[in-house]
């Protein structure tokens, strides 16, 4: 899995793949991981990467509390204090979730405290009114503190379980034929911020 990536090389290059990825990050480039991409970023230690400690996994994404694949829509509250550039200017989003292993669990309470203190918790599952979700179904996987997405300290690396790319146009919404919706889907805001 992720460990092989950390030590993988590219034919014809002396530098390891992970070293090249770190150069990419240190150059100030952006990385967005959605669903499986978020899982990979967590496993590689790219998120939350406290104190810039890339390559050390300090959280995981594991099986949903429901014990099944969740395929539905959820409300998300953006943390206005987060350095995450992808969520700037966003209050509440309504996006689809499609995963069986999306429950965010930090390695320790200390890691969780640092994530919260540094405002790396960029998105939380919430109620329609924006109150943090406690239990299922508003928190679709049982994530600790309803965590749906986290960023690194620069705000340039961001991972989330919900799918912003699946709501780019009003016709992507499940009630598009029954409700007056804007032409632009809410997920597009994540990409416009980048």
Q: Would you write up a description of this structure?
A:
By secondary structure, this protein is of the alpha+beta class. The chain has helices at 2-6, 17-26, 36-43, 109-117, 188-193, and strands at residues 31-34, 59-62, 70-78, 92-99, 103-106, 121-126, 147-151, 157-160. The chain has a single domain (30-193), classed as Class I glutamine amidotransferase (GATase) domain (Rossmann fold). A hairpin with a 5-residue loop joins strand 7 and strand 8 (157-160). The chain is globular, with a radius of gyration of 17 Å. The relative contact order is 0.19. The model has no long low-confidence stretch (mean pLDDT 94).
Provide the fold topology.
Blueprint lengths: L1 H5 L10 H10 L4 E4 L1 H8 L15 E4 L7 E9 L13 E8 L3 E4 L2 H9 L3 E6 L20 E5 L5 E4 L27 H6 L1
Parallel strand pairs: 1-8
Antiparallel strand pairs: 2-5, 3-4, 3-6, 6-7, 7-8
């Amino acid at each position: 899995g992720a460990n092989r990536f950390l030590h993988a090389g590219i034919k014809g290059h002396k530098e390891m793949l992970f070293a090249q990825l770190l150069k990419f990050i240190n150059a100030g480039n952006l990385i967005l991981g959605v669903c499986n991409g978020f899982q990979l970023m967590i496993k590689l230690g790219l998120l939350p990467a406290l104190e810039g400690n890339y390559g050390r996994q300090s959280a995981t994404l594991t099986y949903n509390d429901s014990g099944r694949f969740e395929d539905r829509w959820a409300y998300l509250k953006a943390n206005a204090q987060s350095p995450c550039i992808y969520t700037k200017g966003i209050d509440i989003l309504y996006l689809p979730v499609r995963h069986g292993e999306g429950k965010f669990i930090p390695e320790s309470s200390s890691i969780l405290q640092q994530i919260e203190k540094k405002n790396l918790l960029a998105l939380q599952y919430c109620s329609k009114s924006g109150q943090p979700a406690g239990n299922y179904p508003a928190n679709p996987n049982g994530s600790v503190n309803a965590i749906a997405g986290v960023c690194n300290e620069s705000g340039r690396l961001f991972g989330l379980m919900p799918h912003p790319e699946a709501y780019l146009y009003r016709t992507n919404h499940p009630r598009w034929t029954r409700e007056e919706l804007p032409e632009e889907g809410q997920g597009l805001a994540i990409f416009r911020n980048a």
